[in-house]
């Protein structure tokens, strides 16, 4: 630090004499001739020590120092004057305006010593001021106790953090701040550490005056030289509530899914690992369910991500209601969820829960004013038979889930060893499917439909076949779902439609004129907003009148009654195309739902036909579907008719058409022609 000294004297020779003496000590010396000069200088320069004469014209030394002590109290002030002046400055000395009175003539060595002392004093009080400022302004709470632990001093931050004012704290012991959260041993530990090491630091829960507990990071040190040689303690602490909350938030985010608030993959893995470590203790064996929403992507793409997100949240809530508290439901991402059933020993127990889970999705979800139907495919893997590690159980549950999807979705499946080979087969099939169209491996087959009134073949349904170079004939049940998932269904569907229309045109040209060709449309194809335009263009290019084309749409839960879907089907219908609702009875169509769509035809699913005519339930269902269809102005066709009894019974019930092996199997165009041309409508 530079040491700045100001000399004030009206006599030049005294100024220079003093200057000469003090210069040796390296001070930075300023001089003034009067009190007024001195005040001007002080306003411009940082001065640490002033030596002033008492007797000066205008302003005396004590008057000057009165002013200086008001305006610059930190400056050390020395009067250098004759003995005769002592009584004149005594008052100022008593008021503290003057630090020292030195007499003229001076002794050089004494003067130098006193000035050195004055600078030391300045530094000391400067340091003190700094420390006080730190003590008062720091955000760390400070508490100093005596050797008995009685609080002596606290700083403002102490009061801010704890809520206790200085007056309330001083005289108390730190027990004032105790919460119930710490064990008594914890305080014992602090004490031992203070005695042994003279210090303790760590985290401690304390209680504020308002009763609130809070965590603080604290350092306690022993100060050896207290009053009477006794040790004192000083405690420094900061409130770490916010930091803790931030940590907790980060930890939560690291282990939870942001959208649904469910545990994420990481937490699921941890819990599964833990469950496996304790497995079998009470005969409880954990199992893993892998859940995937069926065709969620379509909803996301058609209704927007916002609706998709809301649906995922609603799904999470619904699933969470079904599983027990000790089980874990997690979201892995996208539309994939997993469940850890911690206490399921036998397959039957798991099955109960699986049934509950799938049943809970019968009710539609109400999102954004839309009523959305969605289904689940679930795979289950049980410990230890289906895997002994978290990774293995997850992988096998996933494989089982894919099997559930292949089996037609909306169901569940338990893992079995053979699935791994199957899963591989599926993977390879998928990569082959990409080339199937280009390599002309796909062929449309045609299955005849018979009119029960006329007894003649009135139309055909196009059913796709895939002639795989190594595997031979692959059925649509194996590859349509794959194509839907990877989007290939769009080019494949377009191709089938063109083929069917060209074939129909060829039959018209050959003289057959009263028939329809039914083409299956996948829900994924309905997503294309310009589908009606595309279909019309195909019809126009090929020159096929629309009345010869029928489009079959599966009664999947996906055909939600959204404005978009309803409008699209109306547009197709307005073109003159007939619309059929395929696999009727397997979905959840309600009457009001049916009324909104312009279907011309209901196709009763073959699962109801199989039991005819003996199975009473099937008979009742089929009977009521036919009656209902007719009431709504639709024709009804039954699928999967294999026997004469079935056909006769359906005719008796008033069914309009039948389709099935009894009439004919799906055949290549050339072979189905024979059946088609037998009809009276052909020339
Ligand atoms: P679908 O539209 O309900 O077709 C009827 C299915 O029942 C066909 O199976 C057919 O071969 C079979 N079937 C017909 N008569 C009988 C019978 O008397 N008994 C038995 N047990 N089965 C009978 P396929 O050809 O394996 O097709 C399965 C499904 O694949 C079809 O169900 C359809 O949803 C889908 N599919 C087939 N071709 C296409 C296509 O070109 N595009 C789309 N999107 N889906 C297609
Ligand atoms: Mg069909
Ligand atoms: Mg069908």
Written account of the structure:
By secondary structure, this protein is an alpha/beta fold. 45% of the residues lie in helices and 22% in strands. It folds into 4 domains: 4-136, 3-Layer(aba) Sandwich (Rossmann fold), CATH 3.40.50; 138-239, Beta-Lactamase, CATH 3.30.450.20; 247-421, Alpha-Beta Plaits; 429-676, TIM Barrel, CATH 3.20.20.450. Strands 18-19-21-22-23-24-25-26 form an 8-stranded mixed beta barrel, surrounded by 5 helices. The chain has a 5-stranded parallel sheet with strand order 2-1-3-4-5, sandwiched between helices. Strands 7-6-10-9-8 form a 5-stranded antiparallel sheet. The longest helix has 30 residues, at 108-137. Helix 3 runs parallel beside helix 4 (86-94) and helix 19 (531-542) packs parallel to helix 20 (563-574). The model has no long low-confidence stretch (mean pLDDT 90). The chain is elongated and about 150 Å long. Strand 18 and strand 19 form a beta hairpin. Bound molecules: ligand C2E and magnesium ion (2 copies). One magnesium ion binds at residues 582-583, 603, 639.
């Amino acid at each position: 630090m530079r040491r700045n000294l100001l000399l004030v004297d009206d006599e030049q020779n005294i100024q220079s004499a003093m200057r000469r003496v003090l210069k040796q000590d390296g001070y930075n010396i300023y001089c003034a001739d009067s009190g007024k000069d001195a005040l001007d200088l002080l306003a411009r320069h940082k001065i640490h020590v002033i030596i002033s004469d008492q007797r000066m014209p205008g302003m005396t030394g004590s008057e000057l120092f009165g002013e200086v002590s008001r305006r610059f109290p930190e400056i050390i002030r020395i009067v250098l004057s004759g003995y005769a002046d002592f009584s004149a400055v005594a008052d100022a000395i008593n008021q503290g305006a003057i630090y020292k009175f030195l007499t003229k003539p001076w002794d050089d060595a004494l003067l130098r010593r006193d000035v050195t002392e004055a600078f030391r004093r300045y530094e000391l009080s400067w340091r003190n001021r700094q420390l006080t400022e730190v003590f008062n302004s720091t955000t760390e709470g400070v508490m100093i106790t005596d050797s008995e632990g009685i609080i002596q001093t606290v700083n403002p931050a102490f009061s801010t953090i704890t809520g206790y004012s200085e007056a309330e704290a001083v005289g108390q012991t730190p027990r004032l701040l105790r919460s119930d959260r710490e064990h008594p041993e914890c305080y014992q530990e602090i004490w031992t550490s203070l005695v042994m090491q003279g210090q303790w630091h760590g985290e401690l829960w304390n209680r504020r005056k308002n009763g609130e507990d809070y965590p603080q990071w604290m350092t306690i040190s022993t100060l050896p030289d207290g009053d009477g040689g006794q040790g004192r303690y000083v405690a420094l602490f900061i409130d770490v509530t916010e930091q803790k909350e931030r940590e907790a938030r980060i930890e939560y985010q690291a282990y939870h899914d942001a959208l649904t608030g469910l545990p994420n993959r990481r937490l699921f893995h941890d819990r599964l690992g833990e469950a496996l470590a304790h497995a079998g203790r009470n005969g409880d064996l954990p199992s893993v369910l892998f859940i995937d929403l069926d065709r969620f992507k379509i909803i996301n793409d058609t209704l927007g991500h916002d609706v998709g997100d809301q649906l995922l949240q609603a799904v999470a809530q619904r699933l969470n209601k079904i599983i027990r508290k000790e089980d874990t439901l997690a979201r892995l991402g996208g539309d994939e969820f997993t469940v850890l059933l911690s206490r399921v020993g036998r397959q039957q127990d798991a099955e109960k829960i699986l049934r509950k889970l799938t049943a809970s999705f019968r009710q539609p979800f109400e999102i954004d004013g839309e009523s959305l139907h969605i289904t689940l495919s679930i795979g289950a893997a049980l410990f230890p038979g289906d895997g002994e590690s978290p990774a293995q159980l997850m992988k096998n549950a996933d494989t089982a889930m894919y099997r559930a999807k292949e089996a037609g979705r909306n169901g569940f499946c338990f893992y079995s060893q053979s699935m791994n080979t199957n899963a591989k087969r599926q993977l390879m099939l998928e990569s082959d499917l990409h080339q199937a169209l280009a390599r002309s491996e796909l062929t449309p087959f045609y299955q005849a439909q018979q009119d029960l009134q006329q007894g003649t073949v009135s139309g055909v349904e196009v059913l796709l076949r895939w002639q795989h170079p190594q595997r031979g004939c692959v059925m649509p049940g194996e590859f349509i779902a794959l194509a839907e998932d990877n989007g290939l269904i769009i080019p494949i569907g377009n191709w089938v439609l063109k083929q069917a229309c060209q074939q129909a045109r060829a039959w018209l040209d050959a003289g057959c004129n009263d028939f329809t060709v039914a083409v299956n449309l996948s829900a994924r194809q309905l997503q294309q907003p310009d589908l009606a335009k595309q279909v019309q263009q195909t019809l126009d290019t090929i020159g096929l009148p629309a009345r010869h084309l029928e489009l079959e749409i599966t009664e999947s839960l996906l055909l939600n009654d959204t404005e978009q879907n309803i409008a699209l089907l109306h547009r197709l219908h307005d073109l003159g195309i007939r619309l059929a609702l395929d696999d009727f009875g397997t979905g959840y169509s309600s009457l009001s739902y049916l009324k909104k769509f312009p279907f011309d035809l209901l196709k009763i699913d073959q699962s109801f036909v199989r039991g005819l005519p003996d199975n009473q339930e099937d008979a009742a269902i089929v009977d009521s579907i036919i009656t209902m269809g007719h009431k709504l102005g639709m024709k009804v066709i039954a699928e999967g008719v294999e026997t004469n009894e079935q056909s006769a019974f359906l005719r008796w019930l008033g069914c309009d058409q039948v389709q099935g092996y009894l009439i004919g199997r799906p055949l290549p165009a050339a072979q189905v022609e024979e059946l088609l041309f037998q009809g009276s409508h052909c020339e």
